[in-house]
Amino acid sequence: MPNTMRGVYTNLTDIRRRVFSEVANVCYSVGENPEMGLGDFDTKFEELPYKIIPGDVATYRESVFLERAIVSERIRLAMGLSQQGVDRPVKISEGLVAAAGPEQYYEPPLINVIKFACNACKDNVYEVTNTCQGCLAHPCREICPKGAISFVNKRAYIDQEKCIHCGMCAKTCPYEAIHHYVRPCAAACGMKAIKSDEHGRADIDQSKCVACGQCLINCPFGAIADKSQIAQVIFSILAKEEVIAIVAPAFVGQFGGKGDVGKLRNAFTQLGFSGMEEVALGADLCTIQEGDDFLEEVPEKYPFMGTSCCPAWSVMAKREFPKYADCISMALTPMTLTARLVRQTHPKAKIVFVGPCSAKKLEAMRQSVRSEVDFVLTFEEMAGMMDAKGIDYLKLTDEGSDFDQASADGRGFAVAGGVASAVVNAIHREHPGMEIKIANAEGLEECRKMMKDAAKGKYDGYLLEGMACPGGCVAGAGTLVAINKSAAAVKRYAKRSSRQNATENGFRMLIPTLERPEDKVNFGDHEIAETDAAMIKEKGKE
Predict the structure, then answer these.
(1) Could you count the other beta carbons within 10 Å of the beta carbon of residue 430?
(2) Cis peptide, bond prior to residue 109, ω within 30 of zero
(3) What is the DSSP string of 295-317?
(4) Residue 455, CA distances (Å) to 254, 300, 305, 318, 542 in order
(5) How large a percentage of the chain has pLDDT more than 90?
(6) Please, are residues 443 and 470 in contact by the beta-carbon 8 Å criterion?
(7) Helices (H), ranges, 272-378
(8) Rounded CA gap, 142 and 40, in Å?
(9) 3-state SS of the chain: helix, strand, coil percent to 5?
(10) 227, 232, 225: which is closest to 70 by C-alpha?
(11) Which of 6-10, 416-420, 499-503 has the lowest mean pLDDT?
């Protein structure tokens, strides 16, 4: 289901970004005021809900107290903390000191439903609207297989206890008077991980969730949010650690401008970062790995090969199609390859992946990745940090320092179809004229259909590209601008590279030094946690 709210700046957008900004502001204030004690720190956080929701009159909900309670939960999640709940008093900042300690990450779950913010939307319910004309034919009643439709006061009425939600009545109504209510977050979830709890509120089955984030950007009540590491990143900066940002290819245009790398470097410097590299560099290396794997393994070893760069897609494919888990590329993701490359020359640095994706937060939690990627921030969270420091991106000086190592194809990873195109182009450099058949899918529901067809043999010999977000990474949950605008900006920026093809990347010779034996254990899966791998093995026996 397409998200009709993407690209529209709403009240929810404003509140979400205010939370990121205010959390960052408080955290930075520690460095600016070293004399501030822990009590002062706690007080600043306790005051934030009143700063974000001022006054005594509700603006968005029935009560200003409810508004502040919801904002309080969002503040805790923005600090990477679990929700307060309502059964005991909890300080907003409770647990932050421990959460900001070394080697700490998220306390699961990553994606959270703020229960008292949920509207308990109707889910998979057919109801008759006021447009019903009570027509003489009564086709809705005649076609219903369970006799669930009767006529009351000359208008159709559906008995919900008899209704089996087949939708035949809605399809046959000549006035389109029967509406199918679907919870927006559930409709957006390609994993079918969202159901209703006993109170009708959204509930996420964490065993199914792959953290694509589509639910949180589709909920019009702002009841779903993921955890952030804004506080942890800022505390590392304030501790004078070497903190290096690696920026996903979708960065172009997210903060304004036209891919002004000099401005972006300037912004990161003002935020306290020690340096910045583009993840498109790792995308080139991933391209080469996947191209080599495809040539060596398809179709001799595996019937097809799926790309690996989107963690939400690859986890879904391996979980739901365990017999074909080996068919998903073993290549390390661009994030991991870039992090390992940076760590070769900066072994003690804290590495922060900055991108559009909430699923990357889950990927970085995997045991094989955590030692390389210390923190993950979305573009939206980064914008909050910029706002906290009063950085006006467009007014920054452009020092003219551009990325000039990654290829145009590597930069194109951010847009749907870009990964498969890059792999094919890399193969054609050494095997010109070789036919490479490709298929791609956007959105997990479409990805699932593609895998079902692949399991039936429809895509034997193919390279399959899966993207959890419709449109590709530019449509990730943590992006700031409209998808079509971002995609166009990425394509323009890619053309500026002096290298067209991933094989022209000078770092390709370092690929063997970035690989480790443990990268190709448990079905060659560097992304799925041990519990997931065990589940795959059990399903594979069935």
Answers:
(1) 11
(2) yes
(3) HHHTTTT-S-EE--S-HHHHHHH
(4) 38, 16, 12, 12, 16
(5) 77
(6) yes
(7) 280-297, 311-320, 334-345, 359-365, 367-370
(8) 69
(9) 45, 10, 45
(10) 225
(11) 6-10
On whether the CB atoms of residues 384 and 21 are closer than 8 A, the answer is yes
Using the CB atoms, write b or e for 159-192: b if 16+ within 10 Å. eeeebeeeebbbeebeeebbeeeebbbbbbbbbe
- pLDDT of residue 92 exceeding 50, the answer is yes
The predicted model gives 400-424 an average pLDDT of 90
Burial of 301 (0-12, 13-18, 19+ CB in 10 A): exposed
- Spell out the residues 6+ positions from residue 21 whose beta carbon is closer than 8 angstroms to its own: 384, 385, 387, 388
Name, in order, each residue with C-beta under 8 angstroms of 186's C-beta and a sequence gap of 6 or more: 123, 192, 194, 195, 202, 215
Structure tokens given for 278? 């583009």
Specify the pLDDT at position 516: 80
User: Is residue 102 over pLDDT 60?
Assistant: no
Q: What's the CA gap between 508 and 534, in Å, rounded?
A: 33
Question: What does the alpha-carbon distance between residue 534 and residue 41 come to, in Å, rounded to a whole number?
Answer: 43
3-state SS, residue 534? helix
Q: What is the pLDDT of residues 186-230, one digit of tens each?
A: 999 999 999 999 999 999 999 999 999 999 999 999 999 999 999
Tokens representing 207 are 């065993």
pLDDT value at position 371?
73
Answer whether residue 9 shows pLDDT above 60.
yes
